[in-house]
Design a protein that fits this description.
single chain; about 475 residues; mainly alpha; 2 domains; two-stranded antiparallel ribbon; 22 helices; 2 strands; about 65% helix
């Protein structure tokens, strides 16, 4: 393992992250309502720390190896979570604990709508912008890692990536070089964000709110600048914009790239993962809307459809925007909406969860095993689209599911041991590990009232979920650290 290379790359990342404190400074100066000094201090501290890390090893020039990559990815998110807590701690006119500051920061960079801050309507504009910006930067990092770096590290496997993008681009990683891939995807991400902001502004939001909510919508993060979230606007038009862009945020950004480059929207329907994502979303909208109307929560079918569709898309994409409080809905609906976060968005999207493609393949594998009971001597391959899936990929997915569920169970027990009830513990871990946010019980609207130890458990769940489980788990293997 090349620790000096890891140090150089992390130094550069932290330095660049320090520079991202400048936009909140501009916002703070424009609105003149505080926290400018906190962001300037954070920019100085992070940039200085990054340079001190980078400078001694600035001439190290090696290729990133597999183990280097795992360590860089894990430390990347952990350090951003810690460094991102500084503006919350250094801000004036409010008291926030170290735990809450780190929690809010990690929720931001992992694009999880699990907030501990109360009174958002009264916070400085600079801090509100910063929270939204954290999620947008976290979403961009997710896209670049998922499509450009994760396949090389073997997280999910290049085979999954190849099966996830149609046409001749499969063996090209979108563009020949990772840097070009990252640049291209970032450009598509920015274009969709701009479109979302314009749509929000056209629907009646102020320019500040439009940009801020575009950040958290396209990143499927779910943070808002208001305590009531999008429901505070009381606008069906704004909710419609949110539904469109939440759904797009849960789509593989490689497909957005291909559709843009070829000027062909048919690219989407040619992808089996997108079709699965679309079918599941439509089915969930229909089921939730019907149940809301049938159970009398809404007397109007239109109102039931509006609220049902919003909740369904929000939780399916793991954005976590809350319109009507679904935790108070009757029967199976609250649990159903949490369970669907385990599926989440497509691979290569900003959405969390286990990803649609993994569920599709594990279900196909289960179907094959059932067929083998009837025809034990038949040779049957698992196919994704028209391509057979290698046994190694299927084995990796099986291992991923097993690891995911084991870690979920352990974290849930730790959450209960930290002093939470069973419903709160189950829903909090389910929502955090899937990077959604809203839960049941005492975390239905905010995580502020959790015991401090429980917040750290939820924080770890967010990081593990965002890093696709294996990235964190492999660091605890003794073999990983052996030369």
């Amino acid at each position: 393992m090349h620790l000096r290379l890891v140090q150089r790359i992390l130094g550069l990342i932290i330095t660049v992250f320090g520079l991202t404190m400048l936009p909140p400074v501009i916002v703070g100066v424009y609105y003149g309502d505080g926290d400018v000094a906190a962001f300037l201090a954070t920019a100085s501290v992070l940039s200085l720390f990054g340079v001190l890390l980078w400078y001694p090893v600035r001439q190290v020039d090696r290729d990133i190896r597999l183990r280097d990559g795992f360590l860089i990815v894990a430390l990347f998110w952990a350090l951003l979570g810690l460094g991102g807590a500084l503006p919350f701690l250094l801000g004036t006119n409010r008291e926030i604990s170290f735990t809450d500051a780190v929690f809010e920061s990690v929720a931001g960079v992992t694009t999880t709508n699990a907030s501990v801050l109360l009174g958002l309507d009264h916070l400085p504009h600079a801090l509100l912008w910063y929270r939204q910006q954290l999620q947008w930067l976290g979403g961009m990092g997710v896209i670049v890692l998922a499509v450009a770096l994760f396949p090389i590290l073997g997280i999910g496997g290049m085979q999954l990536y190849k099966g996830d993008t149609p046409g001749s681009v499969k063996d090209e990683k979108l563009t020949p070089r990772i840097t070009e891939t990252a640049r291209t995807l970032s450009g598509i991400y920015l274009l969709i964000t701009v479109a979302c902001g314009i749509a929000y502004a056209s629907a009646g939001m102020s320019m500040f709110d439009a940009i801020a909510h575009a950040f958290s919508t396209v990143s499927t993060g779910g943070f808002s600048t208001h305590d009531g979230g999008l429901a505070a606007f009381h606008s069906a038009a704004i909710e419609s914009v949110a539904m469109v862009f939440m759904f797009l945020g849960g789509v593989n950004f490689a497909l957005h790239f291909l559709a843009w480059r070829r000027r062909d929207s048919g690219i989407y329907l040619s992808d089996p993962q997108f079709r699965g994502y679309l079918v599941l979303t439509v089915f969930l909208i229909a089921l939730v809307s019907f149940w809301l109307y049938h159970s009398g929560v809404y007397s109007s079918p239109v109102e039931a459809l509006r609220n049902g569709a919003f909740a369904a898309i929000s939780m399916q994409s793991t954005t976590g925007f809350v319109g009507a409080p679904f935790s108070a809905w009757p029967s199976m609906l609250p649990v159903l909406l949490l369970l669907v976060t385990f599926v989440g968005g497509c691979a290569g999207s900003t959405g969390g969860g286990m990803k649609v493609i993994r569920w599709q393949l594990v279900l196909k594998q289960a179907q094959r095993e059932l067929m083998r009971l009837v025809h034990p001597n038949a040779a049957m391959a698992v196919k994704f689209g028209d391509k057979p899936v290698a046994g190694r990929v299927l084995a990796a997915i099986t291992g991923f599911f097993a690891m995911y569920l084991v870690i979920f169970g352990v974290l849930m027990l730790l959450m209960m041991a930290a002093g939470t009830d069973q419903i709160t513990a189950w829903s909090a871990i389910a929502s955090c590990i899937n990077n959604a946010g809203p839960g049941l019980g005492s975390v239905a609207m905010t995580y502020a009232h959790l015991p401090e130890a429980a917040k750290w458990v939820a924080l770890v769940a967010m990081l593990i979920g965002r890093l696709e489980v294996f990235t964190v788990a492999v660091l605890f293997m003794p073999a990983f650290w052996r030369h």
